[in-house]
Every structure is written in C-alpha cells, then in structure tokens.
Amino acid sequence: MKKFPAGFYFGAATSSHQVEGNCDNDWSRWEKKNAERLAAEYVSNKSGLSDPFYEAGSNPENYISGNSVDHYSRFEEDFTHAEKIGLNSYRFSIEWSRIEPADGKWDEKEIEHYIKVIKTLRKKNIEPFITIWHWPLPVWLADDGGIMNPRFADYFSRYASKLAESFGKDVSFYITINEPEIYSLNSYMLGKWTPQKKGVLNYYRAIKVLIRAHNAAYKKIKEKNASASAGPACNMTYFESGGGVINNILVRIAAYLWNMFFISRVKRHSDFIGINYYFHNRIRYGLNKNDNEKVSDMGWELYPAGISYILDKIKKLNLPVYITENGLADENDLHRGWLLTETLKAVYKSIENGIDVRGYFHWSLLDNFEWDKGFWPKFGLISVDRRTMKRTLRGSADVYRNIIKRGLDI
Ligand code: BGC
C-alpha cells in the first residue's frame, strides 16, 4: 500500500449557494424567473420514458435552490460525517450577499456565523479552505453592473479584506475566485447564466476583470494575514489531440486559452494553484471526440488519467497545487469509488514525479444544487433526502475513507 505524504490534505468541497439554503442573491432571483423555462428546455431535450431524472428535470421546482440541503443550520452534523470519512480539510465558500447585504454594510451576525463554522471545523481538526467567491453576487452589486462595474476589483478586495480581518489566524487558506473561466463562459459568452451576456469579447472582458479582482484581493488578504496562502481555483481541461498537425495546433491554442490564460496573469499574486478537474476533450477538427467509455449521470466523460497531463503542464509555474475539485454526478454511486481511486492514483504518481500536489478535495461533500441543472444531479459523497434532510453516506465514502486510512494499492 502506498501512503500519501504526511500532511496531505484529503478533503471535500461545497459552495454556499449550492448547499446552505435561503440565499438572497442574484442567482436566487434569476432561478425564480427562469425555472419554468429550464424545465421546458429539459423536456424538449429528452425523450422522457427511459430517463431516470425526467420527473425531477421536468419540474420547475428542481431549478429553485430554496432551502437547498440546509447546510447553513446543519453544518455541525455535516462535519461529523466528514470526520467519519476521515477528512482533514473542508473547502467551502462564504456567501457574499450575507456578509455585505448592502454596499459597504457588514452584517456582523453573519460573520459570526462563519466564525462558528470555522471554529467547529478546527475543533474537529479539519482545516478550513475558504472560497471567497463562488459566483453569486449580492443583489445591490448585480444591479449595479455586477463584475462589469468599473469598481468591481475594489468591491471584491474590500470584501476579501473584511473576511481575512474577521477570521484572523483561524484561516490559513483562501481561494479567491472559483473557476473564473466557467463563470465567464456561461455568464458572459454563452448567455446561459445570469446576467446572460453573449459574445467572445464579453468573455475576454470578464476574464480581465477577474484577473484584476484576484490580484487586488490577494494583496488585501496578505495585508491582513501575511502568513495565509491564497490562490484561485481554475477549471482545467485535458485537451488531447485526435492526431495530425491541425489537431495538434488546435490543442495548443485551446490549452493556452482555457488552462493558462488566467493563471499566467495571476501567478505572481498566488501562493498556490487550485485545479478543478472534470473534463477531457479529444479534439478532432474542433469537435470533441471522446471514447466515453464511462460517463456520469450528466453525460460527462469520466477520464481520471487526464489529471496527470494537467499536472505535468503546470509544473513549470512552480507553485504548490491543490486539486480543489474533482467529482461526478452519480446518484447510484456506480463510478464514484472508481473515479476517486483512479484520480488519486494519478495524483500520487505525479507527486512521485516531483509535482508539489498538497491536497485533493472531492466535489462534493453533499448532494447539492447544480446551478442551471438544479437538484437532479447528485454529486455527494453523502446523499441528502431533501424532504427529510436526512444525510446518508454513499458507499464511495468508504472507498475514500480506506484510501485516507490505508493508502492506495499501486
Ligand atoms: C463548480 C461547482 C459545480 C461543479 C460540478 C464546478 O464547475 O465549481 O460549483 O457544482 O463544477 O458541475
């Protein structure tokens, strides 16, 4: 059995809007307006009969986060489960709209809430990894241009500074922005998510804003807590060439634009790189030609080996790495144990090859609200029955526990 280096962080991740319940932000507003449309789109894309998610996917209620899985009030119970799995770290996000419900007005009670969350983790020897922003915006800011407000970097870094000051020495790890690429793509290029802007130019503008926001927040965090580490969580894809010169060139362009553009502009203001790994694209003349031997409930190809390629590529940046997300929608837990094991094997080998990977966070600790797909995709190591809010560990949580305890059989 091979054990990971001492001090390696084995964790799981969530985000506030997806698990807490009762958020009042631009997303919660958008969901209510768009639920009927999203349900109708689901119906028009599916044949119905053989689809196990049809009932949920065709119901507008599925698309409204509502009380979600009530992690806001059940966090202690959830951490007891995390402890049972053997996790020594937990990545979660702070809900900006709770902390700053109006421009420059801090809600001290909500800050106290998160301090309690952090202290509860600490008591259980679970290291908190705080995501400062995992996409939803306070309504006042969304109504004033959102990330396109010329002062966005100031607002964001002021908020980051407030968190670093309030949490003090209890927090050593900050993830500034979650997946700037995915947010910019869906909200500013494809027009899928609020505020539904479209166009390549908008994507570029959004990414530039987020680069500035990250760099400004990094400086503020360090001013308040010089010993804390901060970095972004980037979505990185394994682009593989389908063969031939043209595909090789396309792969290089895609890998540069998607994987390297953001990180190379913030690396001087980052103590680590967070990588969220989900996707493999075998490129053949612009099309995605994967084998799809195994797929998740959302139809995403499961390709754990691809993470080695990404880790190899980012070695040159010379920064410690955390896998800040990796997981799948898998209600019946058919592939989760396999995906976890194979991904961790690849990570282990990368460490042996000299890449400084310091942690792995499975997405997700709990079943949760999967953005414009709503509740039907089940990402949790722990399943949640939303009628009773009962938590049940899936079998793959045992697989994870064994790896953490005993190591990997390689
Ligand atoms: C996001 C999560 C999301 C997960 C699965 C990542 O892109 O950070 O919020 O739930 O992927 O889609």
Summary tags:
eight-stranded parallel beta barrel; 410 residues; binds beta-D-glucopyranose; alpha/beta
**Low-confidence region ranges:** none
Q: What is the ordering of alpha helices and beta strands?
A: EHHHHEHHEHHEHHEHEEHEHEEEH
Q: Strand-residue fraction?
A: 15-25%
**Number of helical regions:** 14
Shape estimate: globular
- Rounded to the nearest angstrom, the distance between the terminal CA atoms is 7 Å
**Order of strands, widest sheet:** 1-2-3-4-5-6-8-9
- Count all strands and give the number: 11
| SS-derived structural category | alpha/beta
Q: What small molecules does the structure contain? A: beta-D-glucopyranose
The biggest beta sheet is recorded as: 8 strands, parallel, barrel
Radius of gyration: 20 Å
What does the average pLDDT come to? 97
Helix content: 40-55%
Describe the structure in brief.
The protein is α/β, with parallel strands linked by helices. It is built from 14 helices and 11 strands.
Please outline the helices and strands.
Elements lengths: L8 E5 L2 H4 L6 H20 L8 H4 L13 H15 L3 E5 L2 H4 L8 H16 L3 E7 L5 H4 L9 H16 L5 E6 L1 H10 L10 H25 L4 E13 L3 H22 L6 E12 L2 E2 L17 H9 L6 E5 L10 H17 L4 E7 L18 E4 L4 E4 L1 H12 L4
Parallel strand pairs: 1-2, 1-9, 2-3, 3-4, 4-5, 5-6, 6-8, 8-9
Antiparallel strand pairs: 6-7, 10-11
Helix pairs in contact: 8-10, 9-10, 12-13, 13-14
The structure holds beta-D-glucopyranose.
Question: Any overview of this molecule?
Answer:
With 410 residues, the chain is of the alpha/beta class. 43% of the residues lie in helices and 17% in strands. The chain has 14 helices and eleven strands. The strands form two sheets. The chain has an eight-stranded parallel barrel, surrounded by seven helices. A two-stranded antiparallel ribbon has the order 10-11. Strand 6 and strand 7 form a beta hairpin. Helix 12 (306-314) packs parallel to helix 13 (336-352) and helix 13 runs parallel beside helix 14. The termini are close together. The mean pLDDT is 97. The site of beta-D-glucopyranose (BGC) has 10 residues, from loops.
